[in-house]
Write a structure and sequence with these properties.
Largest sheet: 6 strands, mixed
Mean pLDDT: 83
Number of strands: 57
CATH architecture of the largest domain: 3-Layer(aba) Sandwich
Helix content: 10-25%
Number of domains: 4
Strand order of the largest sheet: 7-8-9-10-15-14
Oligomer: single chain
Radius of gyration: 35 Å
CATH class of the largest domain: Alpha Beta
Strand content: 25-35%
Structural class: alpha+beta
């Protein structure tokens, strides 16, 4: 992941900017309870070692998603050094327990357990020479020791569960509490013989080792730095002892703690804060830089730059001329370790944090390097999050417009046609975009499917004081991206855009993908419907509507949303003809609005939480056996995996599976009535009789309730209750319909395509869930465009949408993009075709059958509308008709919109079709 700066470009060949003085930490990982003493990294994995408080584990982090991948257990002391073999397949770890372990970086198994025949104390440093197949280690007892894996004979393999006994009571330099238990894996054990030990190699602890080249010398040279400050050079001999070559004097009373080589210079990080630089051709000390205010604990070289870290909490970057280029002070404590990958400088500190800093390797700001689309997607998200596109707030109108223009620019730079669509006066515009399908399809009469992606770029306001991170600055922490809109809905929108763009770039986009992104969703979709109507020609060919505006039920199992409740909002206001009065003067003598509204509200809900509104439950769609079965895997998972299911635990406590299922149905498929708040006029003190009282009430509606019936019944009930109060006051009822309910068909071919796409990415089938919340536009779009909707959530239940610290897991965002790509690819098999002589007609429930024939199946005669559009899926022998299919036998009913039938050639009455039309059907099915 990279979050970049102004020089980046969202182009078809996305680029990364150079690291500038404005570079910031782009992600932070937390190593719980342990200072980060050591780091090592491949391009895909980061290894970190701690001080032993948490069992001296080596933590393995996935660098794609910034998630903890594994813990390597075995050491009984602090992890003082980590280093990798050149090919990255072996990880070497040294510890305060006096041992070294070698790990397989693919299986994470411990391969070798290495200990000395002597008491060495802490093993501070290790290096490995691939040319000699030999590991060298620098020790607390001032020795340098080594082991040649090609010649040394292992001891009898022993089980990890045999605790290795420390051979000395010598105090360790890094002491830490350890409770780690070794596993039962079998490892090969090596003991370093006396012949592979140089005693008293220094007059101090050997803190650091380094392998490098020296001008005018052959082979690798071993450099060692110690507590007395000297740096020694050692000649390496295959199968023989190391030989001293030269000693470099770095000064008195300044321990050499870390070493690095770059461009013929040796950099020595010292106690006290200096970096001393030696010319390796003349072996002269050419410069001593006062680099830090405290000990220099780590140095790392990344191509043309040297980086240093210090106990003063600062990380610095140095130029080839030894001038400081940047200073970063983001750790709260000492910076104890450094490592790097191609894209990141990585620092570990005593604050238990690991921080990532973006770097550009060996390039200037003009010579940009190519990046992955994930990098550019996150760059775009960072810039978009920084725009507080809060709808419904006049002061944020300009920011909303800026956010809309930014999205338009992103679409255009990624290869889409795009433009703004005006919204209601004084409100935010809509953003339209289209990625066009490639022109080649399997049948000359087929046209590509049209996918309409719906979303919103507006967000709700955020209280900065209640956030742990700046709400309008994208912040990466422990694999999550924090920021208002990260999950709702900017992150998922960008994932869909980049999915379409990547397929177009790969010439694999076989569907037209259109985007309809509004800016008033959080404000009731003001002006949205009118804007779509005025531009209906852009959207009316849609075959399927895609949205990603909800969340998984838990943390780990992907979901597919197939239903949303609708919502009707109402405001009840009871007014008195009087002004605000004093209760000591007028109490008991007047009708009080607050008392009246309490009485009215008390007649809205029964003691069992059901609504008292007449007819409220009359039209609820019965539970089918198919839908009932969809709840079973959800309930089972709640019982089997309660950990991490943030919303599930309260439900699962002390209830049976059947009770839990009923609770879920109450949230998802049953209607409800909620009283949100009551407010009064005048000063809020204990002596005032307010002249008016106001209450907010909402009703969540479900299939097949009708909005007009519910609103009418609600208003009649409220007026009837109010009329029985014998009050002098008056009531006002303001009803606002925000959203109708929506219910998808889980057996629909589009849901099947979504299910397949999710399974391809996550390796398991999704849970089919419904939501208690509402999306105003979705049901309206389905009706207006006569297209089915599919809802693919990307976020987890803990995403905190609308709450403080909103976030999305980086893994979910990247995987969500791949799910959408797979969904678009799945749709390529569903070709929409029609006979060339038949034109598409408007949908009508009262279509008169002037069909040219009938489809005979299961003894039912189904009328084919005059202008049928039918979907063919050859792999399933399946046909779906777009318009209603009317059945001559009244005992059978089918839903409107898309209806599917399994057919084969024998099911078709040849005499009922014209020759060309029948041939087309049979040919495509074959």
């Amino acid at each position: 992941m990279s979050i970049h700066h102004e020089t980046a470009s969202l182009s078809r060949s996305p680029s990364l900017p150079a690291l500038s003085s404005q570079s910031l930490c782009v992600h932070t990982l937390t190593q719980e309870e342990d200072s980060v003493l050591s780091l090592a990294a491949t391009e895909k994995l980061l290894f970190s070692g701690g001080q032993g408080v948490h069992g001296s584990d080596i933590h393995v982090w996935d660098l794609e998603h910034f998630q903890l991948k594994a813990n390597l257990k075995g050491h009984l002391g602090s992890i003082l050094c980590l280093t990798l073999r050149d090919d990255g397949k072996w990880l070497f770890s040294s510890s305060g327990d006096g041992t070294v372990r070698v790990w397989d970086t693919e299986t994470f198994h411990c391969l070798y357990h290495i200990h000395s025949s002597q008491d060495v104390g802490d093993v501070f440093s290790i290096v490995f020479s691939a040319a000699l197949n030999t590991m060298y280690m620098g020790c607390q007892n001032t020795s340098i020791q080594w082991i040649d894996f090609s010649k040394s004979k292992p001891e009898i393999p022993h089980s990890h569960n045999i605790t290795h006994k420390l051979r000395s009571h010598t105090p360790r330099f890094f002491e830490g509490t350890s409770n780690a238990k070794e596993s039962d894996e079998q490892v090969i054990r090596y003991s370093i013989p006396d012949s592979c030990i140089v005693q008293n190699s220094h007059f101090g602890y050997v803190y650091t080792l380094l392998l490098g080249k020296v001008p005018n010398a052959e082979g690798e040279i071993l450099f060692s730095g110690s507590g007395e400050g000297d740096i020694k050079l050692w000649k390496l001999n295959k199968g023989k002892a190391i030989e001293p070559l030269r000693t470099l004097k770095a000064g008195v009373d300044a321990s050499t703690l870390t070493l690095a080589i770059h461009d013929g210079f040796l950099f020595c990080g010292s106690q006290g804060g200096n970096i001393k630089i030696f010319d390796l051709e003349t072996f002269q000390l050419i410069r001593s830089i006062i680099a830090h205010e405290d000990d220099v604990l780590a140095l790392v070289v990344q191509e043309s730059k040297v980086y240093s870290a210090s106990a003063d909490g600062v990380v610095k970057q140095w130029s080839q001329s030894f001038e400081p280029l940047q200073t970063w002070h983001d750790h709260n404590g000492s910076v104890l370790s450094l490592t790097s990958t191609h894209d990141y400088l990585i620092s570990g500190g005593s604050d238990k944090l690991i921080k990532f800093w973006p770097i550009v390797n060996g390039r200037t700001q003009v010579e940009l390097v190519e990046s992955t689309t994930e990098d550019v997607m996150l760059y775009a998200l960072e810039k978009w999050i920084a725009m507080p596109t809060v709808s419904g707030v006049p002061s944020q109108l300009e920011e909303c417009r800026r956010g809309a223009k930014f999205l338009k620019a992103v679409l255009q730079q990624l290869g889409a046609e795009s433009r703004l669509i005006p919204g209601a006066p004084g409100h935010n515009p809509l953003v339209y975009g289209q990625f066009s399908a490639r022109s080649t399809l399997s049948d000359e009469r087929a046209r590509p499917l049209n996918v309409l992606v719906y979303g919103h770029y507006d967000v709700i306001a955020a209280d900065i004081k209640k956030w742990d991170y700046p709400p309008f600055k994208l912040t990466g922490k422990d694999g999550y991206l924090y920021g208002r809109g990260a999950s709702d809905n900017k992150g998922p929108i960008l994932a869909c855009i980049f999915a379409a763009s990547e397929l177009q770039e790969e010439q694999l986009l076989d569907v037209n993908v259109k985007f309809l992104i509004e800016g008033e969703e959080e404000n009731g979709s003001v002006g949205f419907f009118q804007a779509v109507e005025q531009n209906i020609e852009l959207f009316q060919e849609a075959d399927v509507i895609l949205l990603s505006n909800s969340y998984w039920l838990g943390e780990d199992i992907p979901c597919l949303t197939y239903g949303l409740r609708g919502v009707i909002h109402s405001t009840l206001t009871i007014n008195s003809k009087n002004v605000d009065l004093h209760s000591g003067v007028d109490g008991g003598a007047v009708s009080e609005p607050l008392i009246d509204i309490v009485k009215v509200l008390s007649e809205l809900v029964n003691p069992d939480r059901t609504a008292k509104i007449p007819g409220f439950y009359d039209c609820i769609r019965p539970l089918s056996s198919h839908e009932d079965a969809l709840y079973d895997p959800i309930v089972e998972d709640m019982f089997n995996n309660p950990e991490g299911q943030r919303h599930w635990d309260p439900l699962a406590t002390g209830v049976t599976r059947e009770e839990l299922k009923k609770k879920l149905m109450a949230r998802w498929r049953n209607p409800s009535l909620t009283i949100h708040q009551v407010d009064v006029s005048g000063p809020k003190n204990r002596t005032v009789i307010p002249r008016s009282a106001k209450a907010s009430v909402s009703m969540r509606i479900v299939p097949d309730q009708k909005v007009e019936d519910i609103t009418k019944s609600f208003e009649e009930h409220v007026r009837k209750v109010f009329g029985q109060l014998e009050t002098e006051n008056e009531i006002e009822i303001d009803i606002k319909v925000v959203a109708d309910w929506w219910l998808g068909d889980t057996e629909d071919r589009f849901f099947k395509a979504a299910e397949s796409a999710i399974e391809q990415e996550w390796g398991r089938k999704p849970l089919f869930i419904r939501e208690g919340g509402s999306v105003p536009a979705i049901r309206w779009l389905e009706k207006r465009l006569k297209a089915a909707a599919v809802h693919i959530p990307m976020g987890q239940s803990s995403d905190q949408a609308h709450l403080n610290n909103e976030r999305i897991r980086l893994q979910n965002l990247n995987s969500g993009k791949r799910v959408i790509k797979a969904f678009f690819r799945e749709l390529r098999t569903l070709e929409l075709t029609t006979h060339p002589n038949i034109a598409r007609t408007q949908y009508s429930k009262r279509l008169v059958n002037e069909a040219s024939g009938h489809l005979i199946h299961d003894d039912l005669s189904l009328d084919i509308p005059q202008a049928p559009f039918y979907y063919i899926n050859p792999s399933r022998d399946e046909i779906s008709f777009l318009d209603d299919l009317y059945i001559e036998d009244p005992r059978h009913t089918f839903p409107s919109t898309l209806t599917s039938y399994q057919v084969d050639q024998g099911d078709i009455d040849e005499g009922a079709f014209g020759g060309d039309e029948l041939h087309t059907l049979i040919k495509l099915m074959e």
